[in-house]
Request: fold
Amino acid sequence: MPDRYLEDLNVELFEPLITPEDLKGTLPLSPAARTTVMNSRAIVRRVLDREDRRLLLVLGPCSIHDPAAAIDYARRLRALAARVEDTLYLVMRVYFEKPRTTTGWKGLVNDPRMDDSFHIEEGLHVARRLLLDINEIGLPTATEALDPISPQYLQDLIAWSAIGARTAESQTHREMASGLSSAVGFKNGTDGNLTVAINALRSVSRPHRFLGINGRGEVAVIRTRGNRYAHIVLRGGATGPNYDSVHVLLCEQALAAAGLRANIMVDCSHANSNKDPGLQPAVLEDVARQIAAGNRSLIGVMLESNLEAGSQPIPDDRTQLRYGVSVTDGCIDWDRTERALLAVRDQLRDVLPRRGRIEP
Reply:
């Protein structure tokens, strides 16, 4: 028996959670979803290997809070993906967990009812159902790997993963990412420093051993092979944006010095847009200009996009939530998203097939 005077003094309750195997048994991977995941992961790997010359775009809501609106967005994105597929490869951003500097809504998995009730098992069911639905329409999905336990529940439905600026320095997240089945992008630190992300790339490519859970929910020692499809994501920092050609060149040099492949993605939001979501299309346009001018290292872009522009606070009365509007960071609306992607497709359609690559 635990000594109640020594252990868990600040723990109120241990609440048993469904196991990953049981959740997958309830919401199994369908043949259509399996095909989407397998094909999309292979395409992302080919983009990073430069066998597929298209530009990888990870775009969608800052966070998911309304599955119905997410499916609405996914159907529109799937139709747009078919229009630009000769030049751009689109992956939907489906973020369920939100890191918080202090407090705030922690995302759909942690708090699906958005009322601090934290029905996490319900959140896992909702999240897995949504990922299945999106993959079943043939649209690949991306998410942020924030909690080291949740990949056991959801990673089989993910084509690309992100490690955020707040967690890129975390050894726990580097070890976890070394075992992810998807490609993974590490963002530079919140101060704009590249060293954190570059060290992470060196770490994640190697095997690791760490504590986690297996499919049966048992605590286990996890032994990974290392993930060779990790790359850097420039998201700006405390000193300002870092998507311009000078910062990209400095990143190329830092990657080369570390013996790493020059695969660079630009996050158009956060500090790169001065936290003004309306500036994201201008960042995307600048990235496209760099590629058209001869850049060979830029392989992808991230955009925060939703059905409607801006953001909204979470009201006490959840029925007052505006449909298709983010409850976390502000986004650009669908019309601006579509116009921006069609413009980039026209700009790069004849450029990307001729582009070479940089070797470390």
About this structure: Strands lie at 55-60, 88-93, 141-144, 160-163, 183-187, 209-213, 219-223, 230-234, 264-267, 298-304. The chain has one domain: 24-45+55-354. The longest strand covers residues 298-304.
